[in-house]
Amino acid sequence: MSPEQEKNPTPTVNTTDVTKVNLMGMSQEKLEDFFVSMGEKKFRAAQVLKWIHQLGVTDFSEMSNISKALRTKLADVAEIYAPEVIKQWDSSDGTRKFLIRVGGGNAIEAVYIPESDRGTLCVSSQVGCSLDCSFCATGKQGFNRDLTAAEIIGQVWQAAKSFGQLQENGPRKITNVVMMGMGEPLLNFDNVVDSMNLMMNDHCYGLSKRRVTLSTSGVVPALDRLGQYTDACLAISLHAPNDALRNELVPINKKYPIAELLASAKRYIEGLPDVRRKITIEYTLIDQVNDRPEHAHELAELLKDVPVKINLIPFNPFNLSNYKRVSNNAMHRFQKILIDAGHICTIRTTRGDDIDAACGQLAGQVNDRTKRSQRYKIDTVALMNSDSDVIPVKMIQ
Ligand code: SAH
Ligand code: SF4
């Protein structure tokens, strides 16, 4: 990466007082309860949400439609801070990557991808990931911790701020959000749901439910609960047309096999009031592993009664993996088989190559890795022997 692609934005806000409550990640309901508990009216919540998420204000003294007395009271008990952007890279294709500090020597990444008709922000939900999919850089680093709701919505806030979006009549650069960065969103359920609901809240970012997508590798019990809390779009990371192959690529499949996962995804989609919605199926194509014509035929058959659109993602290599990127021929042959079978099937173009911002390459690299605290990954033996819904993890030595 060239020096001109690298920028070091000034840290915006940071916390100093752990006794104060951070309002950044609070859902509207929680913020209403907070105001009621202070003896204030509920509508204050909507006002404060607008200040934070539409106008980028973190200082209560600037909240001009709130009385001075309440502003002082708020400053005593609360604060507003997003996680700090350590570095920002701009790719020659317009992609922007953010490296965001989350404490303990750790960092996460968020990526903004502009296209002709939209601007998509790819957001992280955890520091690392325990699920250890064989082709994923995040999985290779193990799991460290869940992000807080403030750290999740804080990525949207920081990205929006970097584009000058958070001001009166600011440009609406972020039109879509996908929970496809680091981590498994359904293993950080409450914080992810609260953050997605802030993204869709009209007092905040006001994104339509068709423009916020949760991607999961298939934590079925959590997916079964999702519809009670949100109506965002759903993407399933499938990557294989049968259990034998998927067990190798996506170890959580041993606990929740394909049939259970697709049935749960179908229930979610069918539970939404909007009948035209489809499940996005993500299929990362790896050379000689899952890219053969027979895989495509098997996939077409597997999905024939499921309302899906299929998104093929060429595998993005990273240095801890021996897998190779699919050839263009194999990828287009794969796509053609699915289209000929009547499926909607698109290819995700790789963006931000020059700044390591492509799918699966997000590793949150910080200079000092020695400070990293303990890391965990899925314990596949315990997983197979367990009846519980909890995903067992073991420490990485
Ligand atoms: N944990 C969630 C969301 C984060 S991963 C999930 O697995 O769905 C987001 C997407 O990137 C997933 O579809 C994942 O399979 C894909 N991905 C991971 N590593 C990749 C790689 N090296 N090349 C291409 N896609 C990758
Ligand atoms: Fe985790 Fe998703 Fe990567 Fe699998 S693909 S290791 S679930 S982040």
Describe it for me?
Helices cover 29% and strands 20% of the residues. The strands form 4 sheets. Strands 1-4-5-6-7-10-11-12-13-14-15 form an 11-stranded mixed beta sheet. It is globular, with a radius of gyration of 21 Å. It starts with 5 loop residues before the first strand and ends with a strand. Strand 13, helix 10 (293-302) and strand 14 (308-314) form a beta-alpha-beta unit. It has 397 residues and is of the alpha/beta class. It has helices at residues 28-37, 44-53, 68-77, 137-140, 149-162, 189-200, 220-226, 243-249, 258-270, 293-302, 328-340, 380-385; strands at 6-7, 21-22, 78-79, 85-90, 96-103, 106-115, 118-122, 126-128, 143-146, 176-179, 212-216, 233-237, 279-285, 308-314, 344-347, 376-378, 393-395. The chain has 12 helices and 17 strands. It has 2 domains: 25-79, DNA polymerase, domain 1; 84-396, TIM Barrel, CATH 3.20.20.70. Helix 1 crosses helix 2 (44-53) and helix 10 packs parallel to helix 11. Bound molecules: S-adenosyl-L-homocysteine (SAH) and iron/sulfur cluster. S-adenosyl-L-homocysteine (SAH) is lined by residues 135-136, 180, 184, 215-217, 237, 282, 284, 313, 315-316, 359-360. S-adenosyl-L-homocysteine is lined by residues 135-136, 180, 184, 215-217, 237, 282, 284, 313, 315-316, 359-360.
